[in-house]
Amino acid sequence: MAANKPSVPKGTRDFSPAEMAKRNYIFDTIKTVFRKYGYQEIQTPSMENLETLTGKYGDEGDKLIFKILNNGDLINQTLLKSFDELLSLLNSKGLEVDILNIENEEVGNGNKDRKVSWRDITSKSFEQIFEKLRYDSDDLFELYQLTSLKLGNTVSEKALRYDLTVPFARYVVSHQSEITFPFKRFQVQPVWRADRPQKGRYREFYQCDADVVGSDSLLNEAEFILIYDEALSNFGLKDFTIKINNRKILSGIAEIIGKPELIVDMTVAIDKLDKIGMAGVSKELLERGFTEDDLQKLTPVILLGGGNDEKIDALKKVLAASPIGLKGIEEINTVFTYLKNARLKTAKLELDITLARGLNYYTGAIFEVKTNEVAMGSIGGGGRYDDLTGMFGLKGMTGAGISFGADRIYDVLEELKLFPEDATQGTQVLICCFDKEFENYGFQLVNQLRQQEIRAELYPPGAKIKKQLDYANNKNIPFTIMIGSEEMQRGLLSLKNMQTGEQRKLLVEQVLAELQA
Amino acid sequence: MAANKPSVPKGTRDFSPAEMAKRNYIFDTIKTVFRKYGYQEIQTPSMENLETLTGKYGDEGDKLIFKILNNGDLINQTLLKSFDELLSLLNSKGLEVDILNIENEEVGNGNKDRKVSWRDITSKSFEQIFEKLRYDSDDLFELYQLTSLKLGNTVSEKALRYDLTVPFARYVVSHQSEITFPFKRFQVQPVWRADRPQKGRYREFYQCDADVVGSDSLLNEAEFILIYDEALSNFGLKDFTIKINNRKILSGIAEIIGKPELIVDMTVAIDKLDKIGMAGVSKELLERGFTEDDLQKLTPVILLGGGNDEKIDALKKVLAASPIGLKGIEEINTVFTYLKNARLKTAKLELDITLARGLNYYTGAIFEVKTNEVAMGSIGGGGRYDDLTGMFGLKGMTGAGISFGADRIYDVLEELKLFPEDATQGTQVLICCFDKEFENYGFQLVNQLRQQEIRAELYPPGAKIKKQLDYANNKNIPFTIMIGSEEMQRGLLSLKNMQTGEQRKLLVEQVLAELQA
């Protein structure tokens, strides 16, 4: 036995058979609903070109992108050996083109007779070069900078996917000529973030997104609400709320107060209402540049109560002078009207004007889903964005999308004991032979069962019966069949229900009927 | 429109909806069979600790491992800036522990007054250090080596999974106390190799493996053959061969000739029989250290013809003096005997003693699957290995496994037109509104259809009807429903079969019945 068990990298996880069965149940349930609404699956590569990803997630996000070394052996061979070897390696690592490009780049220009060209740098030893440069510290600086610049450019050109949205935007632009718009796609793949791992935050985790691009119809928003409702109802959740807001309402509010430039500060503050209460929000608003006068206007809007219709009526009055605000209300109202033609199964729908979620990104609807049965952050979110593909030069591509938080849904279903038994059921029956002499009979039987599409196993004959039954129990196999000499002679199989312990002698045909039931 | 479309990294691929549907069909078909035989799915992280992977794939393999930079910003911030910044960065990047460890490491020991400690290196500027070292080239060498060694150790500690076997071995050792043996797992996940991309060879591709560990029963080998037979038959393949060999037979042959030490050379040569013929094989055997005498003994064995029983009889005679060879024959014979109790659906089973496949790895059975309908390399392979987890310190864990080549199976099914239509069918019906005024009616209808579990879409109303029908055609949607004023007034829906062009006026109930059929 190994003294030191090998481990997985921090923030990553193995998924055991029991966990995988549950995860598959979650993903399959969501995918089935996506497909029912016309969404089609795509997959993009795990790695994207570095330039595709950088600059898309802000400075903080950029730092969390996992970069891949171009070539498996470059770093070890370079940084672990002397500078001399490093330089000649640069030459050998397909840097020919770069060398040509910078042929005129030289170090040591101050003095002609100790000038060092790029060709020198890539062909001579460190010592020879140092000597030629006469150990001039300025020149040595320059030498290092030039070399490291070239090296830096060749070290990493690829990075691991940070989310599914930017790769999707890249996909739409790459394939624009083949795609029929509106394009409704879903994608369920892992993403990687070099975040500090902590409870519930991983460096590798699955995202589960559906987006539509090329359609500004608000029917899409209505359908996203139906997708949430249907998928989460299918999981057996009994009480959850889909919150909806609209960026244009937030813009309208900031406009009415006369501080449209402070919209981000305003939404960051009011987004915290749940956590810090109105007193805390007021304090923060004052700190962020709002006046007591502004607060008097804002407070009643933030604390807007009542049902969705009442909120809409109240907002119509408050935002009467703001065309963009009124547009936001109209959009939400349209979505609500559509939904009157499609009864929600379980979801409560709630207009919540404190909802902001990645505001700089969304331009219309904003969604967030929370379960009311378990204390848990949001289990889904999304919204409309007017310019998904602009970052790759394709303008005017409006879209909207939602995401399911699979890890959190897993925890919720676990806590509420909602994973259905048959979804996580593997092998249906284990055949146990008391003796190796029955193995051919056992093998024949297991194959007979499989021909009837029953998931069946034959435990390698000869082991102690306790070991075989433990195997069935640990693998959660509901039935076992014992084969001994008596069974073989009388042609009867001993079928044991592992949960009740009940044991019956049956003919093969009866066993089949029992298992297929 | 973008001038330069963004692209994916060399050797990686996007999978469009049509491709994904076909790939899912392949994976789902194989997974269903794996489950039927008691195999359970697991997943391991995309990244493993570098030490888990290195040294497991030979020197060539090691070079093809994609390494991940520890921290997104390390390289750019270090190598793109001056050496000075690099050094202070080392200090700030959690190198505290390392610094303590090597506090006594110094550069410039030759002369006490210009000694530079690691603390100097990580805190002072390049220029200050150079000055202290008086630009002594030996010291500068040493400085670079020390720094780069430290940097090298911190640059990459993780790498992308190269195959599924080593992570599986690591999984078994990590989870040995939770696992009930024999452990039958399958795994379908991407792997990454920094190989030169070429036709059919990718840098990211899926592997699809099933392995059992902790059981030396030859029933496992028999079941692997049944799994291949069932999965490939389910794809509709009509003519394929499962080749089987046994490492012990190859050992026996080398032993009989009196050159057991040349077993690798022997198998590498005879493995090429298909490609270079017996003349080529003979030439290579001579080059690899065999004599004309050896060839006289080897040739009849290599060219062994007839059915499996005849081959076994002949081998029994040839290997009569080799206990290990006879053991190999006995093992194959046992597998064949088991299979007499389980009729193969389609597969031809062929004992092929030229089959070697990763010989150093396998210790018993060796499998390879080839289709006879299309010119294509092997679409599957595997075998038994006696010491899967020894590399991680857990001894005596015997196992066997097989793999399906999903990309090749995709090409085979495509060429033979074997992808079933319903497996790749997405949306079943598209509802087209002539006018935006019907959209609420259309939305009601689409939801009514979805309540009956029909995959249905409503095209955002208002677009030209040609555009809507093009959408249906491009998305391969088999039916459309047109909604205009006439349809709404008469309560009849106009259902169009997009393949035949046939159009019928039906009641909602009739449409439902039609689509559910």
TrEMBL record, chains A, B:
* Enzyme Commission numbers on file: 6.1.1.21
Outline the subunit composition. Answer: Homodimer.
- GO biological process annotations for this chain's record? histidyl-tRNA aminoacylation
**Compartments in which it is found:** Cytoplasm
Which EC class is the enzyme in? Answer: ligase
Q: Which UniProt keywords apply?
A: Aminoacyl-tRNA synthetase, ATP-binding, Cytoplasm, Ligase, Nucleotide-binding, Protein biosynthesis
- Enumerate the GO terms in the molecular function aspect: ATP binding; histidine-tRNA ligase activity
Please state every residue range assigned to the domain named Aminoacyl-transfer RNA synthetases class-II family profile: 1-460
Q: Would you identify the family this protein belongs to, as annotated?
A: Belongs to the class-II aminoacyl-tRNA synthetase family.
Q: What is the protein's name according to its record? A: Histidine--tRNA ligase
Which species expresses this protein natively? Mucilaginibacter arboris
**Residues involved in L-histidine binding:** 163-165, 193, 207, 211, 357, 361-362
Q: Is this entry keyworded Cytoplasm? A: yes
